[in-house]
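User: Can you predict the 3D structure for this chain?
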Amino acid sequence: MVNLIAGVLGMVNLNAGVFGIESLNAGVLGMVNLNAGVLGIESLNAGVLRMVNLNAGMLGMVNLNAGVLGIESLNAGVLGIVNLNAGVLRIVNLNAGCWGLKVLMLVCLG
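Assistant: Here is the predicted structure, written as structure tokens:
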């Protein structure tokens, strides 16, 4: 379990599962609820000013571009790696998964 307060206007509550991210809540002007399955993303709800419902299959890749107050870019990898750049008022750079993190360090099953 990792509780991370990131940036001035953004908060991230992160629970990391075996292969990736189980839940993610990000931002003041935007909310991201992310459930990542074993090999990909199952559901994504993004933004206060906009809503995105996203279902991605096994081994799938998601490229998401949203507006100024929402999510700018999201790449969801094979084993649950998320590269997330969120919004104008907050920026979250997150690489998650079992084999390493660039911004956030956490231990699988920890």
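The CA atoms of residues 29 and 48 lie 6 Å apart. The chain has one domain: 7-86.
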